[in-house]
């Protein structure tokens, strides 16, 4: 019967006229793809079917409101308390110098009011209750206990679409780039090439000022200080992985940057004074492990994959599906690649520990949430990135309020984080760290983190090639994204041109 069905299908499609070699090739490709579909279905069945809920469900973390950011006072108290455990912070000039940013906080309240989500995921519907109990309604009263990077359900059709039109190209990117990395590492080891020249002191300043790590800016020296114009970037409860591949948490990591020269001054990790080369490893690892995942997690409150949205705002729904799938790739799937990288000599076998040290660092960053960072406005004149983001955030939320009917159930602040902030963090990571060999894998204290840092730099930071769908604000043809882009481009066209509408790297 199967044979007859195949013959009938061939006749109905006119394939009987196709040359035999071509027909055999088509059948082979069909068989390969169907086998791939079956493999993808097993993954979906294992990780999605029966294991996740849509955002309509009251048990979904993002059915509730996004967890509120930690207050500035909480952050200051934590940093001060942690510093007391280490004598070398006793003479720190910046620990107690945090200004009251009441005016900035007032402006942020206006922005957050504009960005508030509607009560329903459905277009044009308002929930009758605010408990999340009605089908399609969201809980507008309670906030989720913590951020969550990977929890939203998508149907198999969306899952298969992502594994057909995104997954293979993402895989090709890191596969190709890690091969190049292995070749370069081999040639360097045998003295045949040298890395690009690196000014480590300038690079540390760049990673603090020109990436989302800028939120860790704490305070700077008063005007006229004999120390100069020094900014302190403080990371309380700092997650890292030691050279035995064990997950660790330091009480306090502090980096001082001269804002006038934009150069590294000094850094401390608990009781250890560390140099610029070591600081670069820690800053880069924090970016890829504990800091950047916050953006991924917050983005889940800024999406809507409801199938009904496909008729009203298909571009946004597609972007939402891409974001959900890439969060799955980055959280659930990523750790599975370590076995391959260990076999190829790119990372040490310790990364394969059942404790999953990198995932532990991910979870640490996600659970820690984000601190209020009103004082970041003090960096506007010293950071191209901060200057752009402070202005574009206001533009984004103002436009979001105008177009809110197109984005039901979507938190505008979370959407800003998952689009503008996330994509620019990637672009800046790519532009800033020009050579992965700058990360010293032979460092006696932090070399293991440099291993992963190199792999992430080459394989998971750049734009994914081969995508058929549009992903930028620019040229989207969508009234909201185009309006934001038009105004953002007047501030900084290079950054505006690299704003993505979804998490796609």
Write the SSE topology.
Layout: H1 2-13, H2 20-47, H3 72-83, H4 102-115, H5 156-165, H6 167-189, H7 200-209, E1 217-220, E2 230-241, E3 247-258, E4 263-269, E5 272-274, H8 276-299, H9 314-333, H10 338-343, H11 357-368, H12 384-402, H13 412-432, H14 447-459, H15 479-491, H16 493-497
Helix pairs in contact: 2-5, 4-12, 6-14, 7-8, 8-11, 8-13, 8-14, 12-13, 12-15
Describe the structure.
By secondary structure, this protein is of the alpha+beta class. The protein has 16 helices and five strands. It has a five-stranded antiparallel sheet.
Instruction: Tell the overall outline.
Output: globular
- Mean of residue pLDDT? 89
The helix tally amounts to 16
Structural class: alpha+beta
Largest sheet properties = 5 strands, antiparallel
- Secondary-structure element order, N to C: HHHHHHHEEEEEHHHHHHHHH
Q: Radius of gyration, rounded? A: 24 Å
From the structure provided, what is the oligomeric state, counting identical versus distinct chains? single chain
Relative helix content: 40-55%
Distance between the termini: 46 Å
* Contiguous runs where pLDDT drops below 50 for at least 5 residues: 99-105, 126-136
Strand order of the largest sheet: 1-2-3-4-5
Q: How many strand elements?
A: 5
Percent range for β-strand residues: 5-15%
């Amino acid at each position: 019967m199967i044979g007859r069905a195949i013959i009938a299908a061939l006749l109905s499609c006119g394939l009987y006229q196709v040359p035999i070699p071509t027909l055999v090739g088509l059948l082979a490709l069909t068989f390969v793809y169907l086998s791939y579909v079956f493999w993808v279905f097993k993954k979906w069945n294992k990780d999605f079917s029966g294991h996740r809920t849509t955002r309509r469900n009251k048990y979904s973390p993002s059915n509730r409101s996004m967890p509120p950011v930690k207050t500035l006072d909480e952050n200051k108290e934590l940093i001060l308390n942690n510093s007391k455990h280490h004598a070398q912070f006793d003479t720190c000039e910046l620990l107690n110098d945090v200004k009251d940013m009441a005016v900035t906080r007032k402006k942020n309240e206006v922005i957050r009011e504009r960005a508030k989500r509607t009560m329903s995921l459905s277009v044009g519907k308002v929930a009758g209750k605010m408990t999340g109990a009605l089908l399609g309604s969201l809980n507008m009263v309670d906030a989720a206990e913590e951020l969550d990077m990977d929890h939203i359900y998508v149907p198999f059709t969306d899952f298969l679409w992502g594994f057909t039109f995104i997954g293979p190209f993402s895989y090709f990117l890191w596969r190709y780039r890690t091969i190049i990395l292995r070749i370069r590492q081999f040639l360097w080891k045998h003295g045949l090439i040298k890395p690009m020249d690196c000014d480590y002191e300038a690079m540390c300043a760049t990673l603090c000022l020109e990436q989302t790590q800028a939120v860790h800016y704490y305070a700077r020296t008063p005007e006229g200080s004999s120390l100069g114009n020094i900014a302190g970037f403080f990371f309380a409860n700092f997650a890292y992985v030691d050279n035995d591949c064990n997950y660790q948490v330091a009480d306090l990591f502090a980096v001082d940057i001269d804002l006038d020269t934009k150069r590294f001054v000094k850094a401390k990790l608990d009781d250890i004074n560390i140099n610029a080369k070591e600081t670069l490893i820690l800053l880069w690892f924090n970016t890829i492990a504990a800091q950047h995942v916050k953006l991924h997690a917050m983005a889940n409150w800024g999406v809507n994959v409801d199938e009904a949205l496909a008729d009203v705002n298909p571009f946004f729904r597609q972007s939402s599906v891409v974001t959900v799938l890439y969060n799955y790739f980055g959280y659930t799937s990523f750790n599975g690649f370590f076995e391959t990288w260990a076999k190829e000599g790119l990372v040490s076998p310790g990364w394969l520990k059942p404790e999953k040290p990198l995932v532990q660092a991910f979870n640490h960053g996600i659970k820690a949430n984000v601190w209020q960072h009103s004082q970041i406005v003090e960096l506007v004149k010293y950071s191209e990135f901060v200057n752009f983001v402070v202005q574009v955030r206001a533009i984004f939320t103002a436009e979001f309020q105008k177009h809110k009917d197109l984005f039901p159930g979507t938190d505008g602040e979370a959407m800003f984080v998952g689009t503008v902030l996330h994509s620019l963090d990637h672009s800046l990571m790519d532009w800033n760290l020009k050579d992965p060999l700058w990360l010293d894998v032979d460092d006696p204290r932090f070399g293991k983190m440099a291993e992963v840092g190199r792999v992430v730099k080459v394989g998971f930071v750049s734009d994914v090639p081969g995508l058929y769908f549009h992903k930028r604000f620019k040229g989207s043809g969508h009234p909201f994204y185009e309006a934001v882009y038009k105004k953002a481009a007047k501030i900084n066209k290079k950054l505006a041109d690299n704003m993505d509408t979804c998490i796609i790297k």
